[in-house]
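Predict fold of N-6 DNA methylase; 500 aa.
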Amino acid sequence: MSEIQILELLDKLIAQSASRGFDLWVRLESAQKIAEFAKGARDVRCSFGPSTLPAVLISLARDGKKVRFVSKHQFEAELMNLMSMVFDLNVKIIEQDPFLREDGPPADFELSMPPFNMLYQDLHDVPQQILRRLGLDKAKARVTAEVLALEDALENKARRQAVLVAPGTLFRNVGVEKTARGDLLFSGRLRSVLRIPSGMAFEGTSITSNLLILDDQHGGTASLSPIRFVDLQDPHFSNARERGRYEVRPEASWVEAVDAATVAGEAWARDVSISEIEERGGVLTPDRFFAADTEDEVSKLCAGMETFALSDLAEIIRPAPLLKDEDGEFVAREAAAAEIDESGFVVQPSRASKLGQGGLSKAVDQRLAPGDVVLAVKGTIGAVGLVPEDAPAAASGEIWVPGQSLVALRLRKGVQLKPVTLFEFLSSDVMRDYIKSLATGTAVQTLSIKDVKALKIPVPSLSDQSQVEEAFWARQNLYAQIRALREAVENARNAWPHRI
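Predicted 3D structure, encoded as tokens:
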């Protein structure tokens, strides 16, 4: 067997182990694309276990490169040693925390692939210069290896660097992630952020990952240069496979996507100015910047109408914990996105809890009232529903409230916007695509309340809103006919074997 055939066999065997948590092995096709970034480098440094396969591929080129592999875990060092023996590679293996930097000066190309969300709680062994960059002056804190890898890359500059991180590092605004992003953004070294879709890098996880490319090609003016965001989920780079996973298209080069002089007109990349990134809160998730075309569509949808921030038009009612009482005489039903029917109305929620008088009094503040619009901000992002006129009142002893995945939008008194118009606008294809583009998260997507409040909502003339309502109710009549036909079909299944 050739070396590549052996790797392909290993790739298939390890992919079958992915469901059992073996996440040290980057899929072969993605590892090959990552390894291509080392082209032209004289020496290469790969750190942490997931960089094992890219390090092997770089060494297999046998073009005189000096390759270092650094990991603090004995198992990872032993795995790299085994690969070196199998393929007769010249790799220097250092069993040590990569952040200590005792293995030599920065390499021409450095690849850092810390396991996602690996915590450093004891910071005694982290170099002080990295901690100072993050503003940490204590020996213990909850810092992920991904954050430390970004600061390490800025502190130990190489000609080109690649760092793989989970999405949370690029959008989370708690802890030190925001500080690390700011340092990265204004260092002038961040060249590109590549979004790697689900299953393309690691077989055993459904979350996306992001490959950050840093280099020094811009010199002293780098802080003024735009950042290139590349979507590797685009058909130009990948093919969709089962369960929402993606496979690499071998003919598409990730390196060329980063190094191309321009990507104007391409759907899979966008060059974004530092000022625009700042306007969006310093978030570096690629999805946020591929919303540009959708934003243009939203602007077209609002053309000729005065627009307002959603928070100016509606009260945003967030879910709150219920004071449950098993002996209570009242009932609260928590609505979920799954309980928005095909017509757009919220149906009776199935999840019910008993409340006492005190619990009811508190829950009434979040009661869903007829005409409220609900919006999914967690999980099924962008699902929109309208609370029907027959939703129960508190006096009935039963109320509906938004579940944990929803917020309720209640139009403020005096605004010239009708509930049906708000529902129709938010549930339009354009707005749903736009709202989805604002979501962040790894395993579970989340829409921030800040983004909900900032949504621009047009207020059409009253005559135009009347036409919107007429079209809405005409559609409801059609849904009623569909339901009647379905019932008739079901009733027609009245002979064996459908009925006994």
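The mean pLDDT is 89.
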